[in-house]
User: What shape does this take?
Amino acid sequence: MSSMKSPVGKEVAFYPLERINKLDSRRYAAEIETLAFAFAIADECGITFSNALETQMDDPEKWAKLCKEAGSARYKRTIQGKVRAYVADPENGVFPPRSAVTKDATVEKLCELLAAPNNHGLLLYFDELVEFMEAMDAYRLAGGDRQKYLDLWSGSAINTQRKGANIVSASKTCLGLFGYIQPEKLRELLAQEKVTVSSGGDGFWPRWLFCNPPNTLGLYNDLEGSVEELMQDCLDRADKGVIPGTILKFAPDAFALYKGTVNKWLVASESESLMVQGFTGKIKGYLARFAGLLHCIEWSQADEKPLATTISAETMLRAVHVCEYFRRQFDMVMSQAGATGIPAWVTRLELKVETTSKDQITASDLSKWRIADSAEDANSKIKQLVDDLGLGDKRQNRQKNWVWLPHALNPHQVDEMVA
Assistant: This one.
């Protein structure tokens, strides 16, 4: 979820992948045209099909003459039939255009794309996630489409069959989903699905990574720039350099950091809502995925060859920072939607504290940050933070207003440690 306008998201996620689609479509079209010419030359010029293909690679000038001599023969039905038969044989290695991104949410279409032999991952992109929810029978919780998406999160196999067609199956899958949803729309969806603090839902929403940056007013300036070029360069390097099927492993110190971080998250979530506990179960998987992703990105930017198969502790630490960000975002988004039990203003305040170097937060700070409506409200919220939620400690200043100490242990925590 994001308040970011879709053009920015398209530069980050859609356009760089769409370029792969377009380039591979051109590659496929050129390959089909070459095959058609080769079959036509074999028919019209008295040389074999294999020799025609060799000429195309070894002697471009002669190939051009032969193509001119064959003329429009490549359009004959017999020639087109030979091309289709040649392409249909997987041993010939002519693969259909690769799809790196799509907006088609039907399970049948996704299965077809994921089953392609040259598919190494697919992004399902939406400008409006509500469209996706409606397309996958989101309001029928027992619906088959929803369960398939739950399974696809883990890279499970998928198979489907259109009426009157053969079964299409993909034994390994890698599917990502990206899109936008307004906070009020999310609240409506959660309410319709009866997702609450106590229920937690069916695990669908804890699989999402939310990004809800603050709304800022964009002022006009003369600077020009686009993140699309940066993303395109990074993607091209990684896509061409990382061999599909490469297995990455954690270095011993990286694995120790992974285990320690996951255990810390699991212990912290014991007292949280079922929704947060569900997300914690998924974020540990995301931690491993981000570590692998960052490892490949870092390698692609360093021009080192070949790709090292061991993920370092430094890369794992960066992945931890990424996941910590998404943990905070999940808390904030779900609290705003009423699905965590944590007041939304608490999550907003925690994010503010993390971006400041202040060890003491005053009542006036809460008012300045628009977290409290008045001094009385600010004092009440600080007392609630410490007395009810057990977050930090508090003291009174000379004006008898409460001051929050976010990084201190509150008296209840001290008692628990002593006991």
About this structure: The two ends are 43 Å apart (CA to CA). Confidence is low (pLDDT under 50) at residues 138-142, 409-419. The longest helix spans residues 6-44.
